Amino acid sequence: MAAEIVNPRSDIDTDSDAGDFDPAFALHRGGKMAVQATVPIRDKDDLSLAYTPGVARVCTAIAEQPDLVNDYTWKSSVVAVVTDGTAVLGLGDIGPEASLPVMEGKAILFKQFGGVDAVPIALACTGVDEIVETVVRLAPSFGGVNLEDISAPRCFEIERQLQERLDIPVFHDDQHGTAVVTLAALRNAARFTGRELGELRGVISGAGAAGVAIAKFLLEAGLGDVAVADRKGIVSADRDDLTPVKRELAELTNKAGLKGSLEDALAGADVFIGVSGGTVPEAAVASMAKDAFVFAMANPDPEVHPDVAHKYAAVVATGRSDYPNQINNVLAFPGIFAGALQVRASRITEGMKIAAADALAAVVGEDLAADYVIPSPFDERVAPAVTAAVAAAARAEGVARR
Questions:
Q1: Cα 289 → chain centroid
Q2: Are 275 and 214 in contact (CB under 8 A)?
Q3: 34 vs 197: CA distance, rounded Å
Q4: Low-confidence ranges of the chain (pLDDT < 50)
Q5: Is 106 in the active site?
Q6: CA quadruple 160, 161, 166, 171: dihedral positive or negative?
Q7: 312 is catalytic
Q8: Quick one: 219 and 125 in the same domain?
Q9: Which of 32, 75, 106, 246 is catalytic?
Q10: How many CB atoms lie within 10 A of CB 266?
Q11: Does residue 50 fall inside a structural domain?
């Protein structure tokens, strides 16, 4: 059951500025979240327990037995949502202050859909070492770290270093949340057309954070083959302009040895996954295999308009909420963190992510249809299913501590 959001700022005047005639400005005035106590302070006895002198006994116990921090503070149930504001939505590098409305939004989605408390943290630094050191120093206050809207390729190294240095889950949602939901939708699309993942060849438009993560994750899950295209064409080992991340990607993908453009890769392909923007020519979509899948996820303008995609594809998905089959990260990250925190996992493994995708796909069940390969974020079965699957996978993989 989703947690109820209470607005403690309902008395704030939202009509004082001309901008507030826009309902988005009216909703955001004063921010979208606040800290709320979980214990009452009604008299001196409550005060003496919640603060001094009672709190000193708890502090002393934690100092003597550090693991008690998870039982007697909020640490084990709260996530830091960390950004440097360099890759915010489709807006790009807009800086830490301008990123805060998105980070607040992420935090309330954690609470609404997963019952997880989250704190937005926008950093005034962009260097890999600076960000890593800052988050490491903040980590004692949190049970997990959700990295958000940090531009590639720095996001890969930041996540890698934090995973090495911290013993709490570190998860870059732009990579892995997108990959989990994409895999869930792809599993059901394959089931709808009577095929297995291993029979499919995919093409991904975009070699940034999401594109790289999706490619690796789908191959890990058993996809037959996938080629990734960036602005200069198919990522392949013969190119001399690849970053270290793309060189690694070239070694893992494109078993067919394709060369050329995105359009060349789409000829005969079973799956298109768009995470880059731009427009794919209709002729290239028409060249795809029979019963193809088109997941055009750029917002607000999909790489392939759904009306065009439906001419040629058996299943069409987008990143938009006004079309069926929305690939939305909110289907994944609240339950993933809820499950990891529930068992106090030391990290989020590939197995935990695959378990999340499988659980998400299973929610669709026998209602599977071309316009229903992924559930709605408002389906109350989603977060509990993902939470339970992730917790079970963490135990099975030996990263759970309770």
A1: 29
A2: yes
A3: 44
A4: 1-16, 18
A5: yes
A6: negative
A7: no
A8: no
A9: 106
A10: 26
A11: no
